[in-house]
Amino acid sequence: MTPTEQSARALEVCRLAPVVPVLVIDDIAHARPLAEALVAGGLPALEVTLRTPCALDAIRIMAEVPGGHVGAGTLLTRADVKAAKEAGATFGVSPGSTPALIDAACEFDLPLLPGAVTASEIMALLELGFTVQKFFPAEQSGGAAFLKSIGSPLPQVSFCPTGGIGLKTAPDYLGLKNILCVGGSWVAPKDAMVAGDWAKITTLAAEAKALRS
Questions:
Q1: Among 16, 22, 85, 205, which one is least packed by beta carbons within 10 Å?
Q2: Is 47 designated active site?
Q3: Is 121 an active-site residue?
């Protein structure tokens, strides 16, 4: 799978909903009900970050939830890409990019949403064929104002900004023509997961879905 093909697949994922939940799962028992709650609320694209010991097992479980499209976040190495693909991830997300990571995504046929935060990084990825990119950390790197400005010289690139975005600031990004969706963790707060309040998470997901009708 070439970078151009990867971006085409990433584009499909990013168009599923205005928000991609960024999920840190500490308890494997939360995996299935969390996925079901988010999908029920209208957010089918789910990014499970590889930051916890049970992340890969969570991907395996969530991949079985009807209507869900489960990806792996925080991909840093070839081993991460291989493990994510074997666990059932259908896309991958990285905070940045390296030649080795891109080569691994091509090798294992895992659509990659690579991260970029400067004009040079965006241009380097575009040169390879990545027309869909992650912008991270969004709020700390110029936010919506930066992305609006970069859209003029680089209209070929569309973004999924992630990092510090919440319900109140998401519309600032989603109103820009070069933004496909945003990534956010606010739709799956830890206290709700610990309490097993899946109805609350479904409500938060529905609110996020309504950000773009």
A1: 16
A2: yes
A3: no
